[in-house]
């Protein structure tokens, strides 16, 4: 069942425009033009959210909100206002005081801002229950659009509920896409399989703005299956890889908003559960070849390596793994402030001037997060120190040995290891380990205890037992 929205606004034109937008986002929408009608509707129907205009007449906005608070306390309330000038006034302050669970929204903003609020308050279970708006599969539409608007996932790793929650595309050429599923279409696995098997499509594309829906959905599944022994480790890894990668991609696009820190925490718990419950992870990791050089895949790989390294220690705990996982997801967030052309480059590809800028990213990152109280201080410290090295050769402070937080050195090792791996021909861990261990200059950058335990991450415990 689709979630229901009530829009109450005296401006019919705006209300209808909003209704059209949210219908396209798979909500069921009712529009009323007076406070009285809003109350009547709310009395008869069950709404997920009511979007009430500040200036509603014939039962004021405040009256309607009070009515909702009293009779339907679960309904989220968004108060819309016409111009920013209203915001400073006493009336506005009064109406705002009555919002128990909701937000205010300027009608000058685009609908996506309000859409974000609505989405952040619905659970993946709500999303799963969205019924297809039609059984008819619509025609494929070819469109020309900038590649930058899109993000992609492997076709095998695409998850959806009964209905596809957003438009899905296949890329024909750079800048050229075909829409194969429309938001609200029935999700048919057969159709996806046909693209995969007959048309040899490897990736499905969707708008970057829809990545949040995808993350929420995939994370829900990761939470459900993460610690299950019945689900193959590879499937679980695919899930958390997508979750972490797309989550980091969104964080890089929008910054780390306090609203998403909870989600980061959930993702880290899911990562921990997968690591903790999969006995064959070490063996799989040895041969793992799902790494690519983009910055978001990098964040995921570092998260996995560092979390697995922590798991080798006796002092490991769920909290420590989760803390490090969070630090890893955000460890390079400071690069957001650097020229975009640098984002996906490996350190070895940087010019001297770029290198100088690159060396500021740990400080930029910890500064960016300093005001986000929801992120633990230890995470900020790890981010600041993730390029410090045991022999003092790191940056920004050049501190050495025990002065560096062990967890920062853990992240540093995972980080450096990823770069070595991506630069080997095979792009797999084992050749990278060889390259790492035969380079004394690299080895002395890290605490030897860490290196020893890092090696254990790639040893198949099954093989040891057999010997
Ligand atoms: Fe870094
Ligand atoms: Fe990094």
General description of the model:
The chain is of the alpha/beta class and 467 residues long. The protein has three domains: 4-122, Rossmann fold (3-Layer(aba) Sandwich); 141-209, no CATH class; 226-466, Hypothetical protein af1432. It contains 21 helices and ten strands. It has helices at residues 12-24, 35-44, 61-71, 90-97, 111-120, 124-128, 189-197, 211-225, 233-254, 258-277, 281-287, 295-311, 318-330, 352-358, 361-370, 377-385, 406-423, 429-437, 440-443, 448-456, 461-466, and strands at 4-8, 28-32, 49-53, 76-81, 102-106, 141-144, 150-154, 168-173, 176-181, 203-207. The strands form three sheets. The protein has a five-stranded parallel sheet with strand order 2-1-3-4-5, sandwiched between helices. The longest helix has 22 residues, at 233-254. The chain is globular, with a radius of gyration of 25 Å. The termini are far apart. The mean pLDDT is 87. One fe (ii) ion binds next to helix 12.
């Amino acid at each position: 069942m689709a979630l229901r929205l009530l829009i109450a606004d005296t401006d019919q034109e705006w209300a209808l425009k909003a209704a059209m937008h949210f219908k396209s986002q798979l909500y069921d929408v009712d529009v009323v033009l007076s406070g009285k009608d809003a109350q009547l509707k709310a009395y008869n129907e069950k709404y997920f959210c009511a979007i009430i205009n500040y200036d509603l007449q014939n039962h004021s906005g405040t009256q309607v909100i009070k009515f909702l608070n009293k009779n339907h306390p679960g309904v989220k309330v968004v108060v819309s206002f016409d111009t920013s000038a209203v915001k400073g006034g006493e009336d506005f302050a009064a109406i705002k005081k009555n919002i128990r669970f909701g937000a205010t929204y300027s009608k000058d903003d685009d609908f996506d801002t309000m859409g974000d609020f609505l989405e952040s308050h619905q659970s993946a279970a709500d999303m799963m229950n969205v019924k297809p708006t039609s059984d008819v599969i619509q025609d494929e539409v070819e469109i020309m659009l900038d590649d930058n608007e899109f993000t992609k996932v492997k076709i095998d790793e695409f998850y959806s509920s009964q209905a596809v929650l957003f438009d899905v595309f296949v890329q024909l050429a750079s800048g050229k896409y075909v829409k194969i599923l429309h938001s609200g279409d029935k999700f048919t696995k057969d159709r996806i399989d046909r693209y995969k098997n007959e048309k040899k499509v490897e990736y499905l594309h969707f708008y970057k703005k829809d990545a949040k829906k995808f993350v929420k959905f995939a994370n829900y599944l990761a939470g459900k299956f993460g610690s299950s022994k019945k689900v193959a480790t590879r499937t679980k890894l695919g899930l958390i890889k997508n979750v972490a990668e797309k989550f980091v991609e969104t964080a890089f696009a929008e910054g780390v908003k306090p609203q998403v820190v909870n989600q980061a925490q959930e993702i880290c718990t899911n990562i921990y559960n997968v690591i903790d419950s999969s006995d064959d992870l070490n063996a799989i990791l040895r041969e793992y070849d799902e790494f690519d050089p983009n910055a978001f895949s990098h964040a995921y790989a570092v998260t996995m390596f560092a979390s697995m390294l922590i798991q080798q220690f006796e002092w490991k705990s769920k909290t420590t793994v989760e803390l490090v996982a969070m630090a890893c997801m955000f460890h390079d967030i400071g690069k957001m402030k650097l020229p975009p052309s640098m984002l996906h480059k490996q350190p070895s590809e940087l010019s001297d001037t770029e290198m100088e800028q690159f060396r500021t990213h740990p400080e930029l990152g910890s500064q960016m997060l300093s005001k986000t109280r929801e992120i633990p201080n230890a995470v900020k410290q790890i981010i600041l120190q993730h390029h410090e090295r045991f022999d003092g050769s790191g940056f920004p402070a050049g501190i050495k040995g025990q002065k560096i937080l062990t967890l920062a050195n853990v992240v540093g090792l995972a980080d450096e290891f990823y770069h070595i791996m991506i630069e080997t021909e095979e792009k797999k861990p084992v050749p990278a380990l060889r390259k790492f261990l035969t380079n004394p200059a690299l080895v002395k950058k890290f605490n030897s205890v860490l290196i020893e335990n890092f090696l254990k991450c790639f040893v198949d415990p099954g093989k040891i037992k057999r010997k």
